[in-house]
Automatic annotation (TrEMBL):
<dbReference type="InterPro" id="IPR016169">
    <property type="entry name" value="FAD-bd_PCMH_sub2"/>
</dbReference>
<dbReference type="InterPro" id="IPR006094">
    <property type="entry name" value="Oxid_FAD_bind_N"/>
</dbReference>
<protein>
    <submittedName>
        <fullName>Glycolate dehydrogenase, subunit GlcD</fullName>
        <ecNumber>1.1.99.14</ecNumber>
    </submittedName>
</protein>
<dbReference type="InterPro" id="IPR016171">
    <property type="entry name" value="Vanillyl_alc_oxidase_C-sub2"/>
</dbReference>
<dbReference type="GO" id="GO:0071949">
    <property type="term" value="F:FAD binding"/>
</dbReference>
<keyword id="KW-0560">Oxidoreductase</keyword>
<dbReference type="InterPro" id="IPR051914">
    <property type="entry name" value="FAD-linked_OxidoTrans_Type4"/>
</dbReference>
<feature type="domain" description="FAD-binding PCMH-type">
    <location>
        <begin position="45"/>
        <end position="224"/>
    </location>
</feature>
<dbReference type="GO" id="GO:0019154">
    <property type="term" value="F:glycolate dehydrogenase activity"/>
</dbReference>
<dbReference type="Pfam" id="PF02913">
    <property type="entry name" value="FAD-oxidase_C"/>
</dbReference>
<dbReference type="InterPro" id="IPR016164">
    <property type="entry name" value="FAD-linked_Oxase-like_C"/>
</dbReference>
<dbReference type="InterPro" id="IPR004113">
    <property type="entry name" value="FAD-bd_oxidored_4_C"/>
</dbReference>
<keyword id="KW-0274">FAD</keyword>
<dbReference type="Pfam" id="PF01565">
    <property type="entry name" value="FAD_binding_4"/>
</dbReference>
<dbReference type="InterPro" id="IPR016166">
    <property type="entry name" value="FAD-bd_PCMH"/>
</dbReference>
<dbReference type="InterPro" id="IPR036318">
    <property type="entry name" value="FAD-bd_PCMH-like_sf"/>
</dbReference>
<keyword id="KW-0285">Flavoprotein</keyword>
């Protein structure tokens, strides 16, 4: 879906928005427009919005959407802007609709193990609120301290605990959504089970604000384990660490967290935190078990990895827990050079060893460097290719070629172009590589049915 083609009178848009809402909710200051014009993703065609609107409730969202239909501007719903795929980049004739002030936790139903929240609630704030009830909200992207639940829903975000507890879609029971025609609908239910009608809730999760704007969510909570055991295992190389992941699976143990870091990522941790990880190995697994079987699972994992030749931390080693928290709170931005390109592809776990070997072959062939951090428990890799900035645009062409080849290789291995970051603007060039024409056509038709004018987040996702 493309942005509306007609030019829109920016002054008229601002006047009508200010008339429909409170004046302090509408901003047209240049510095604000620039700040809200993009997320952390690559910007190929920089644009600034006509205005930024700060919604306070669902009615505000409806007012903006109705004006969009009348005046012809598009609406880009935005949370904290922490995405990395260009999912909230401004497009021509657009208004950015910020949901960050809709940040109320409306209900915590401890006995039902559910919570109802507005989209602007910060992920970690929800976890702090439900922890007193012995509960947690399982999806925990690395941006959990700054990203919003609405943004997590938009991209079907994942995180460290995904392999055991699932991604965002697995924790969303119901949604309140404003459609492109201004209607407010409720989809889903309060129960964990329910098959009445099509699963529209799952359709909206991961749709990147292209089908409707989420204004409230009913979320499933999980038990917060009192016993958590953390393990660090250091291997000579990344292939050995990947083999360790498969060995844990063959032992029929399901850790809550299994993160894999290569030597380049370990060097970054060393430089930031003063650790000496690279002196002890070329790759690392960070593992956490939880629940009443945490100690038993820990012992099985330590035995399996030791037999593979890994240097495994002692039980109760505080460093292991500290390293997991370092990884949990690192979005990876600090390890990215100016001239770099990275992605969040996923492959079947059985393909991890071969795919990681392929990544290094690709890097060698294109004369670029590569480092890899991986949610190894579910095969979601974040490879980053980079070059010396002094190479300039000539090096960037090799970089992009390496990235394209790595995506092709992931698909050849039975994987996907994005595990948790979304398609946004940046990954649309690969979408036809993964989805067959008939499937793409069906998805275009679904989007056209819900948003026939193409007003909601044009140029993103499908």
């Amino acid at each position: 879906m493309s942005a509306p083609v007609q030019e829109v009178d920016a002054t008229l848009v601002a006047e009508r928005l200010t008339s429909a809402l409170d004046a302090e909710q509408v901003c047209v200051e240049a510095i604000v427009l620039e700040d809200y014009s993009h997320d952390y993703g690559h910007v190929a065609d920089p644009q600034v919005p006509l205005a930024v609107v700060f919604a306070r409730d669902a009615t505000d969202v409806q007012q903006v959407v109705l004006l969009a239909g009348e005046l012809g501007f598009s609406v880009i719903a935005r949370g904290a802007g922490t995405g990395v795929s260009g999912g909230v980049h401004a497009t021509r004739n657009s208004v950015v609709l910020s949901l960050e002030r809709m940040d109320a936790i409306l209900e915590i139903r401890a006995e039902d193990e559910t919570a109802v929240v507005q989209p602007g609630v910060i992920n970690s704030d929800l976890n702090d609120a439900v922890a007193v009830h012995g509960l947690m909200y399982a999806p925990d992207p690395a941006s959990h301290k700054i990203s919003t639940i609405g943004g997590n829903i938009a991209t079907n975000a994942g995180g460290l605990r995904c392999a055991k507890y699932g991604v965002t879609r697995d924790s969303v029971l119901a949604l309140d959504v404003v459609l492109a025609d201004g209607r407010l609908i409720h989809v889903g239910r309060n129960t964990f089970k329910g098959v009445a009608g099509y699963d529209l809730t799952s359709l909206f999760v991961g749709s990147e604000g292209t089908l409707g704007i989420v204004v409230a969510a009913t979320l499933r909570l999980r038990y917060l384990s009192a016993d958590q055991r953390s393990i660090v295992a250091l291997f000579p190389d990344l292939e050995g660490a990947a083999a360790g992941v498969l060995a844990i699976g063959k032992a029929r143990v399901q850790p809550a967290i299994t993160e894999m870091l290569d030597s380049g990522t370990m060097q970054v941790l060393d430089s930031i935190h003063g650790t000496h990880l690279t002196d002890r190995g070329g790759a690392m697994l960070l593992i956490r078990t939880d629940g009443y079987g945490a100690a038993i699972e820990e012992e099985v994992i330590r035995k399996v990895l030791t037999e593979l030749g890994a240097e495994v931390s002692a039980s109760g080693d505080a460093t292991a827990a500290e390293l997991i928290e370092m990884r949990r709170n690192s979005r990876g931005d600090e390890q990215d050079d100016e001239f770099r390109a990275g992605e969040d592809i996923a492959v079947p776990r059985s393909q991890l060893v071969g795919y990681i070997h392929t990544l290094h072959e690709i890097a060698d062939r294109h004369q670029v460097w590569v480092r890899v951090v991986c949610h190894a428990g579910d095969g979601n890799l974040h490879p980053t290719f980079w070059i010396d900035p002094r190479e300039g645009q000539a090096g960037m062409k090799r970089l992009e070629a390496a990235l394209d080849e790595s995506v092709r290789a992931a698909l050849d291995a039975g994987g996907t172009i994005t595990g948790e970051h979304g398609v946004g603007q940046y990954k649309r060039r690969w979408l036809t590589w993964e989805l067959e024409p008939d499937v793409l056509d069906l998805q275009y038709r679904i989007r056209g049915l819900l948003d026939p004018q193409g007003l909601l987040n044009p140029g993103k996702g499908i």
